[in-house]
Amino acid sequence: MPDGIKTEVKRKALHLTGLTVPAFYVLFGRELTLTFVALAFVLFVVLEPFRIIEGLSDRIKVRLKIIRPEMVSGVEVIEKHIKEIERSHERNGIGAHIYFSVASLVIVYFFSEEIAIASITVATIGDALAAIVGKSFGKHRFSNGKSLEGSLAYFLSGVIVIAPLMGLTAALIGSLAGTIAEFYELPPDDNFSNQLAIAVVLYLLTLL
Question: Mind telling me which residue stretches traverse the membrane in this protein (predicted)?
Answer without folding.
Answer: 12-28, 34-53, 93-111, 117-134, 154-180
